[in-house]
Amino acid sequence: MRAARVLALIVVAVLAAGCAPSPSGTGAAPGLRVMTWNVLTARFDPPQWAGTIASWRPAVVGLQEICAGEAVALADLLRTEHGLPYVAVPGPVRPTPAEDADPVNAALRRPCHDGAVVQYGLAVLTLLPVTAASTELFAPDHRDEQRGYQRVSVRTPAGDALTLYNTHVGLAGVQPSQVRDLAGRAAREPGPTVVLGDLNVDQERDPGTVTPLRDGFTEIDPERRLRTSPNDPDDPDVTPGEEIDYVFVRGLVSAGPAAAPWTPASDHRPLVATLGAS
User: Fold this and answer.
1) Among 68, 62, 66, CA closest to 37
2) Backbone phi, psi, residue 133, to 5°
3) Alpha carbons 264 and 256: distance in angstroms, whole number
4) Computed over its alpha carbons, how large is the radius of gyration of the chain?
5) pLDDT tens-digit series, residues 155-209
6) What is the per-residue burial (b if ≥16 Cβ within 10 Å, else e) of 99-119?
7) How many other CB atoms are found less than 10 A from the CB of residue 143?
8) Which helix (H) or strand (E) holds 52?
């Protein structure tokens, strides 16, 4: 009985989130709202991130540069202080044992103070019931720390299956192979799929790297209006210069304009999209 009540509360919250007005008060089309956000842990913390997420109330949030414990704490804050019953799905990106000693992967441990077990990388927060979750690694590359992606399957309020890929692609030239691997894996999904995250690619400078995703998926901001990095947390009037955070969809369509609102809690602005059935 208790589990059924919790599920009912989640569904009600998701329905409210999908139809909720935006913080600007202009309203949003009914649909499923998703967000991707690189939150820059070690400089910012869950209490600083919670307000931005609560303002937009996305049904699903893909987070990058976050510790596993912080994802759980953030979901707790959103439940207790904002009445939003988010569930945290941490996705630490842990190097393989063979790669763990590589000095380039030392960066994976420092933010979370987690000793021998890496707890740093990715996380998903969701108001939707989770049916499966895993974290996969890209091929190790000595040019950058270990990277990977989360695959999280959820159920929409209508009972439909939805698969989410949340990623933080690397730097130093690893982007083409990692984006290609991600696109190939996501393209094999049989149903509606969302790919989001920090791809560390600006299409104005390097348009070809994102082509594997654009070939099979629809980009939420095809006109490239929205810039997300670098965000100035102290000045909302400073316009970011790069588009490196993305939302791609297949089996869904945009049901309203995307947004990249200023935030005082990261060096990235979140990218928010409202989706509907195709």
Assistant:
1) 62
2) -155, 140
3) 25
4) 18
5) 998 899 999 999 999 999 999 999 999 999 999 999 999 999 999 999 888 889 9
6) beeeebbeebbebbebeeebb
7) 10
8) helix 46-56
Residues paired with 33 in a beta bridge: 274
Provide the CATH number for the domain formed by 2-277 in this structure: 3.60.10.10
Structure confidence by residue, pLDDT tens digits, 76-90: 999 999 999 999 999
Distance between CA atoms of residues 121 and 168, nearest Å: 8
Q: Are strands 32-38 and 193-198 parallel, antiparallel or unpaired?
A: unpaired
DSSP-derived 3-state class of residue 43: coil
Q: Is 9 helix (H, G, I), strand (E, B) or coil?
A: helix
**Cβ(243)–Cβ(224) below 8 Å:** yes
Q: Contact, 31 vs 275, CB < 8 A?
A: yes
Q: Are strands 32-38 and 252-254 parallel, antiparallel or unpaired?
A: unpaired
Output the six-digit token pair for 266: 């990261």
Q: What is the pTM of this model?
A: 0.89
Q: 167 φ, ψ to 5°?
A: -140, 160
- Rounded CA gap, 213 and 100, in Å? 30
Cβ neighbours of residue 215 closer than 8 Å, sequence gap 6 or more: 183
Number of H-type helices and E-type strands within the chain: 5, 12
User: Are 271 and 35 within 8 A, CB to CB?
Assistant: yes
| Residue spans per domain, the chain | 2-277
